[in-house]
Amino acid sequence: MANQDKSGRPAAIVTGAGSGIGQATTALLLERGWNVAAVDLQAGALAELEAGHSAERLLVRACDVTDEAQVAAVVGEAAAKFGRLDGAVNSAGMAADKHVFDTSAELFRKILDVNVIGTFLIGREAGRHMAKAGRGAIVNVASVSGLRGSKGRSAYGASKGAVINLTQVMANDLAPHGIRVNAVAPGPVETPMVKALHTSADRDLYNRYIPMRRYAEPREIASVIHFLLDESQSSFVTGEIVAVDGGYRGAGIIVDPA
Ligand code: NAD
Question: Cβ(12)–Cβ(139) under 8 Å?
Fold first, then answer.
């Protein structure tokens, strides 16, 4: 089991845990023996997770990841409850598909605040706790939209591009403290975010450009996040961006020749 020693189970904090990728990651980590602090903007969104697991293994807290004081408090509480902090997963995020002419500065700032500042704050606070033990792993949820210029994603794509560079910088800053920092870059995943955002025309388009011709299930992202958190599997991986996208990033011409 990852990072486990005689003092107990490994522990992680997961943001955006009330839905989609964060929820699937929380469930998978619990299943694989981790203790988890599950954080989301709305505590109500965490009720489903809370109902299925013991309070000994799962801490559930409402927290706005853009609020510095709330982030420091919840990371501190998680480390104190479990007596350690081995992992942090930044899955809280928001998205918008809008033409650049229709993107207000207010929306752009909001997306940067949640996706970039929130990721930075959780990573910094978790990193401070991990540095005391001289070990830990942080996994950020970026996106293929941060690697390539998807149409209508000026704010979202820029925020995920920033998350990718933040991941690389933090990997550099935190390596001397024994902390690894990596990111996953998912393609489309069947989550409430995508259900709200993608029309059936969007779905047809994505499926045409993804060699595996389908969307991911949240658990398929969660298992790569677990790999990156787990010292026994990825001890020499840091500053890496792992696309989990059914082949989208690497694909050239994918239409079958006539
Ligand atoms: P989701 O909307 O299902 O879940 C996101 C969660 O983040 C929600 O529960 C929401 O309440 C929470 N959240 C939002 N703002 C918050 C804040 N300020 N503080 C705390 N929690 C907050 O979305 P998802 O599809 O699971 O996305 C998770 C992450 O994966 C996001 O960063 C998203 O950009 C990224 N991503 C998703 C896809 C996809 O296709 N679904 C693809 C690539 C990347």
Answer: no
